[in-house]
Specification:
With 109 residues, the chain is mainly beta. The protein has strands spanning 23-31, 34-42, 46-50, 66-73, 78-82, 85-90, 103-107. Strands 3-4-7 form a three-stranded antiparallel sheet, with no helix packed on it. A two-stranded antiparallel ribbon has the order 1-2. The chain starts with 22 loop residues before the first strand and ends with a strand.
Length: 109
């Protein structure tokens, strides 16, 4: 019994790339015998972009976490401000040895 392998190609075309298009892209193939997938991080050099943070109502005395989702590559620094003054400086994971195009950086005010 001979076995045959058929190769096909699938393409994902991204036009007018933007920094916020960076991230993990996964290609998955399926048939009646199962499935297989592979993913790769797409790093895009571009200016930083900060996604808007929603307004929140918090309770005094509790611990809370604010998240700032940032895209762009490379990002060297994120600065937090409260009422227009620097109150917290965050160092990105990429500066600690792990490259990241989109980072959730958290800090305590």
């Amino acid at each position: 019994m001979e076995s045959y392998w058929f190769f096909c190609f699938s393409y994902l075309n991204i036009t007018s790339l933007r920094a916020d298009d960076a991230g993990l892209y996964v290609c998955e193939a399926k048939n009646s015998a199962g499935s297989a997938k592979h993913g790769a991080l797409l790093h895009i050099r571009g200016p930083p972009h900060v996604k808007p943070m929603p307004a929140r109502r918090l309770v005094s005395g509790r611990d809370e976490e604010l998240r700032c989702r940032v895209s762009g590559h490379p990002i060297n620094e994120i600065t937090w401000q409260k009422d227009g003054e620097n109150s917290l400086r965050s160092v990105l994971e990429s500066l600690l040895g792990r490259e990241s195009t989109t980072s959730d950086v958290t800090g305590r005010l």
